[in-house]
Design goal:
mainly alpha; two-stranded antiparallel sheet; 6 helices; 4 strands; about 50% helix; elongated
């Protein structure tokens, strides 16, 4: 066949080659008189005789169709696609849940480190963050709690300042000496033996 099968016309030999693939001799009863000996065989054309299908490649070669059961494969792939879509929705929900949890954790940690809070206030803050279900809600709750805690007076003393301040008057100038309250007798015996060896 020609290389450009779809663009040009078929030659007579190419057409007969294709038709020959679809014709067969009729195997029915002879309808003429049985005594006539020069009967010509009846040829029947079945243009759908290629039940498996034909494929013409870009070189013009005619081959049998090889994608058998394509409809079954399509149905299988559709089912798999539906399952993947369900899984994707589930994973999106879980990912959103984890993102909200991480945002809540980050905001609560910031509040605890930036502001001095009591144990009860910390518990209340955590309870309020438990009710949050979206990132925007977490952000707005953080801003609200931050303004609430910002209105409280903050401690301005630094630890370094407190440590560096020494008392102006000291009542004791004695040096404290410490002694052992208890020593294991086995250790003391081992020490004595070590002294004797030296």
């Amino acid at each position: 066949m020609r290389g450009y099968f779809g663009l040009g016309k078929l030659s007579a030999s190419e057409k007969s080659d294709i038709l020959d693939q679809h014709k067969s001799v009729y195997n029915g009863y002879q309808t003429m008189q049985p005594q006539v000996s020069n009967t010509q065989p009846l040829t029947v054309y079945d243009f759908a005789g290629d039940k498996e299908g034909l494929v013409v490649n870009n070189k013009g070669e005619v081959k049998k169709y090889t994608n058998m059961g394509i409809n079954e494969q399509v149905e299988t792939l559709k089912k798999q696609n539906a399952e993947y879509k369900k899984a994707l929705v589930l994973f999106k929900d879980k990912l959103n849940e984890v993102a909200v949890f991480n945002a809540n954790l980050a905001y609560a940690t910031r509040l605890f480190t930036e502001h001095s809070t009591t144990k009860q206030e910390k518990l209340n803050i955590l309870k309020r963050f438990d009710t949050v279900s979206t990132m925007n809600e977490a952000k707005s709750l953080f801003s609200t709690i931050k303004t609430e805690l910002g209105s409280k007076t903050t401690v301005t003393e630094s630890v370094a300042k407190k440590i560096s301040n020494t008392p102006s008057t000291s009542s004791s100038t004695e040096v404290l000496s410490e002694s052992k309250a208890y020593e294991n007798p086995q250790f003391s015996r081992i020490k004595e033996m070590m002294r004797k060896i030296k």
